[in-house]
């Protein structure tokens, strides 16, 4: 393994059956050599996450889709093993967009964060201290701006992002209400992530009534990962000056644009604010956010779950489990040990 | 007239025919006497505006509906004729919620702004320097925050609020695109209010295509008075970081909540912000805003139209013209001269 670069590449785009194992192929390339000013990164952990479905679809998105035959785009935790850049000395742990492969050559621009072994288990860097945790923390604090005593509602409350958002809101002194999709996840929300109330949106029936019971005074902050019926219920229960962070739209298709209730009057009457959040717009805050999250984790105030598969060849199947909602915690694949 | 208080009161709530003349009744009451600490205001101009439909409807709104038999709620320009409050000396011109009546007794809390004869014709205080102009200016500058060179779209672009918003955006160096509802208003948008482009939403057919032609680079700021099809088109053409001020929902019913396209992905992908605006939340900025608007008006950079009816008994019919869109400029009724 040390002398070759195993890569999972995109074999075909998702068709009518969605993402399948046939979309991917393992290839073995030569271990790359860094050029002047470049770094050679050995990947230790590869991330599997819902956004990857969008990255291999043909439609427009934040970024160009992964080309056919190209290495599957992915966040990863790696270790710099060769460096021609004094800002990134060999041995550094780094988190960034390094792809599903053993080795990655970087000019530094695809590194999103310098990691620190002292922050805790390495897995944390792909979750709580990685894009999911940073997204949870920054969208909540920068867009939601919750104040102690306010009520914060979270959709996909037991998910990777939602579970961190809910816990941070609780740490900040808020009442938290989570929406999730099974009785088991409701229990997890209450027992593990500290939500004050959790609603199984699949069985609750009248979601507005369920939310009214869970948050009688209404919702000040809504951390929205889904759009769809959960959002429709929340938008009927806004308090004045409510802040809604749109972080994901998991419950609705991208094309064609689906129909739903027009929220305009709810936004107007409550002088609410709805804002779309993309973590990379807030890169300057990543280090401060990760530092705070690491402290809370060390203090035992934030709980995380990691669903770790072993070996690069396991990555496609592990991603499929994520897309089916079968993962138990943040999904990642371990492919090497740090030196 | 000097010794009695003529009042237009609410005779019945709008029924299936909407607001009609039968909703109102003229009554003659005694001229009121102010008590300790109170002011007696003689109304000079009464306002007629779309919001009044909401104030007499039974449904929930920002405020309690006008009670049956109660004086019709209205903005007005008045002059203080007796005062037991040194903050508001007799002779002061004041703008506030004084109702459709000759005389109003106030404790000062329903006064929204002190007016100044030097600012221009008195009518300005019910329009450019009143709630419509303040709403236009503050929602645009505080929520829309347009920068020179950006594109600002306005719905009901020739209306009382929209026409000021469009002109302010132009003064601030923006490219302005107005949506309006007739060929005549399109001409007015272009010739009188200085829009760079104007679209007749009733005849344009494909609104997205029309907007794309008018604003090829997309929309940075959307001043939304309507919701509905115009908004649906704008939301497909947002630029990154777009700001949408929801100021009105004229094109959609309040109940039941109508269906429309879900904007979530457009908001997310463009990291847009949608915010509901109610002018009274910004009362602390009223004087500064009015001062700026008065300067621009004196410089000839903002054009206004006033549709002035004469005599308090004309108020209900004048309001009906507003609700049918038949008014030509900001509608108001003159009932007395300033001393």
From TrEMBL, chains A, B:
Record keyword DNA-binding present: no
Location of the Alcohol dehydrogenase-like C-terminal domain: 160-291
Residue ranges of domain Oxidoreductase N-terminal in the record: 6-111
InterPro entries: ADH-like_C, ADH_N_2, GroES-like_sf, MDR_fam, NAD(P)-bd_dom_sf
Listed GO MF terms: oxidoreductase activity, acting on the CH-CH group of donors, NAD or NADP as acceptor
Stored Gene3D superfamilies: Medium-chain alcohol dehydrogenases, catalytic domain, NAD(P)-binding Rossmann-like Domain
Keyword Zinc: no
One Pfam family named in its UniProt record: ADH_zinc_N
PANTHER family: PROSTAGLANDIN REDUCTASE, PROSTAGLANDIN REDUCTASE 1
Protein name: Enoyl reductase (ER) domain-containing protein
Organism field: Tistlia consotensis USBA 355
């Amino acid at each position: 393994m040390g002398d070759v670069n195993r890569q999972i590449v995109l074999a075909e785009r998702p068709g009518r059956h969605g993402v399948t194992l046939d979309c991917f192929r393992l290839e073995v390339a030569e271990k790359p050599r860094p050029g002047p000013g470049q770094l050679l990164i050995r990947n230790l952990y590869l991330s599997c996450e819902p956004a990857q479905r969008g990255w291999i679809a043909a439609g427009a998105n934040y970024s160009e889709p992964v080309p056919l035959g190209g290495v599957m785009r992915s966040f990863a935790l790696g270790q710099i093993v060769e460096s021609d850049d004094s800002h990134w000395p060999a041995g550094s742990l780094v988190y960034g967009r390094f792809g599903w492969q053993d080795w990655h050559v970087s000019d530094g621009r695809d590194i999103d964060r310098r990691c620190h072994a002292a922050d805790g288990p390495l897995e944390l860097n792909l979750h709580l201290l990685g894009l999911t945790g940073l997204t949870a923390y920054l969208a909540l604090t920068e867009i939601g701006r919750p104040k102690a005593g306010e009520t914060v509602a979270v959709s996909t409350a037991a998910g990777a992002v939602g579970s961190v958002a809910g816990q941070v809101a609780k740490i900040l002194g808020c009442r938290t209400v989570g929406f999730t999709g099974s009785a088991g996840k409701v229990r997890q929300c209450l027992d593990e992530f500290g939500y004050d109330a959790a609603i199984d949106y699949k069985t609750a029936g009248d979601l507005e009534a369920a939310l009214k019971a869970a948050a009688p005074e209404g919702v000040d902050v809504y951390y929205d990962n889904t759009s769809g019926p959960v959002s429709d219920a929340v938008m009927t229960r806004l308090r004045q000056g409510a802040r809604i962070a749109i972080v994901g739209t998991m419950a609705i298709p991208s094309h064609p644009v689906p129909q739903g209730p027009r929220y305009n009057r709810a936004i107007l009457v409550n002088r609410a604010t709805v804002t779309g959040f993309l973590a990379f717009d807030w890169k300057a805050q990543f280090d401060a956010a990760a530092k705070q999250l690491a402290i809370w984790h060390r203090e035992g105030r934030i709980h995380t779950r990691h669903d770790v598969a072993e070996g690069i060849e396991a990555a496609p199947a592990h991603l499929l489990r994520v897309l089916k909602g079968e993962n138990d915690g943040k999904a990642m694949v371990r492919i090497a040990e740090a030196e």
